[in-house]
Specification:
Radius of gyration: 19 Å
Largest sheet: 6 strands, antiparallel
Mean pLDDT: 90
Number of strands: 11
CATH topology of the largest domain: Transferase(Phosphotransferase), domain 1
Distance between the termini: 48 Å
CATH architecture of the largest domain: Orthogonal Bundle
CATH class of the largest domain: Mainly Alpha
Helix content: 25-40%
CATH superfamily of the largest domain: Transferase(Phosphotransferase) domain 1
Order of helices and strands: EEEEHEEEHHEEEEHHHHHH
Number of helices: 9
Strand content: 15-25%
Low-confidence stretches: 158-164
Shape: globular
Strand order of the largest sheet: 1-2-3-4-6-5
Length: 268
Amino acid sequence: MSRIKENIEIIRPLGIGGTATVYEGYDYWAKERIAIKALYKSVFRDSYIRKKFKQEANIYLNLEHPNIVRLMDFVSTENTDYLIMEFVEGMTLQNYVNNVSGPMADERLLSVFVQVLAGLAHAHNSRIYHLDIKPDNIMITNTGKVKILDFGISTIKDANDGGNRMMGTPMFMSPEQVDKVPVSRFSDIYSLGVTLFYAVTARMPYNQIDIDQLFDKIKNEPLPRVVEFYPYANRALQGIIDKATEKSIEDRYQTCEEFAYELSNELN
């Protein structure tokens, strides 16, 4: 164990990412458990990565919402930078489906996804796009509250801003992300549609294909039918998944609020 500030101690690692490790920690002044996201020392000198890490901290400052994990502090030392976050006790949606529920029952699915959509709507209304929505970035707490994690590759943009850097997790990328064209809230809506498919079926839509085949399917083919993967799936959810994952942004849900409204109508 080691202290990064007088009051903040690292306890144990929780997870490893591409540029940072997340630890459980303890804040002796607040007398509470915390999560500490620490940049790898090997990338600390990379100006682009460090800039993105600081941007992540600034993004969290604009995202105070009960369904988004809360930033408590940003600590910079001579060796690396740290994000001090609220500690969320529970499991990711990925682990929940894999180890607890299997295909999710309609009532539980509605509760989880309405909360995710509320958090995303708040971010989108602040012109912040997550860009890596997937089951591993959705945490279900022990009390049933949902928290969106990891805005590390998110961006503050308007819909006309461009970029040529591919960002996201391939299975959950939108066609815009694959093509490296301007992204907006519609990419998050698409990714959440793929995440909904996973929650309904307990399976990823595409398996045992290479990255070029995956990207071709994302750009040109609708997702498979849920009943082909789970015959007891609620067939009414197929239309919602299809609309969320339309290839053209004009044909997708235009807002998270619209997505949540149609999901609630089908499952209530």
